[in-house]
Amino acid sequence: MASPKLIAAGVVVVIAAVVGSMCVFTVRQDQQALVLQFGNPVHAVSEPGLHFKLPIQNVEYYERRILELDPPVQQVLLSDQKRVNVDSFARWKIVDPLTFRQRATNTTNFVQLFGQRLNSVIRGELAQAPLVTLLSDNRAQIMEKIQASLVEPAKEFGVQLIDVRIGRTDLPQETSQAVYNRMRSSRIAEAAQLRAEGEELKAKIQAEADRERIGILAEASRQAEVLSGEGDAERNIVLGKAYGQDAEFFEFYRSLESYKSALSNGSTMVLSPDSEFFQYFNKSAPQTSR
């Protein structure tokens, strides 16, 4: 039978082991801890490893890693009166567990509280911007302004705000259809205007071409008349000189020209043989003496 001393020693060892285990706690690399006594914070532990506390104290653990806050999708009215569905998110980490516990109690409460504030700031900023801004490079500047507006409120919770982003910006179904209809109407009106401008330009070019054509034809006709007149004058001068030199030959030449004009077009003429038109044909050749 074991002696009372041996039993007492065993009890002491067990009690010491239990008390010792209650005085030691471990913090992992991805954790930070807050030591509490009767529910009141005593001090924070940010270094990983083995740490000590009083048996009457307990420990709460908090994430050291970067966490994500993803509030519900909200509908925002933009400055151009268009409504969009905005899906935003933020990345954050706890840097002061004591402040975080005092202001938010736990991660679930913080996500709810700060998510509401995030959506409120996003609504305020996007209400000052048109839809085209959200679809351009200026979107990054809007996100920088939103993040700058939330940095100080995050510190009030003992949190460091790492990043804020708008994941998706979608038009509601009814707005998408209305925007499509407006765009379609705008393109139809633009096409009609371009066609009208094209027709107007075509008419101007055609009118200008017609004016140039008429001018060119008129000038060509004038030059033709001038050249024809000059040719006729020169011809009359030549014929006049020929008539002055030999009137009979001139008459004969004029008759040949008349024959050529009258007979070259394939027409049929019925004339008397003794007509003056054939006066040179009626002249018999001189009789040769035998």
TrEMBL record:
Keywords: Hydrolase, Membrane, Protease, Transmembrane, Transmembrane helix. GO terms for cellular component: membrane. Pfam families: Band_7. This is Protein HflC. It comes from the Bacteria. The lineage of its organism: Bacteria, Pseudomonadati, Pseudomonadota, Alphaproteobacteria, Rhodospirillales. Residues 22-183 form the Band domain. It comes from Thalassospira lucentensis. SUPFAM superfamilies: Band 7/SPFH domain. Its main location: membrane. Gene3D superfamilies: Band 7 domain. The chain crosses the membrane at residues 6-27.
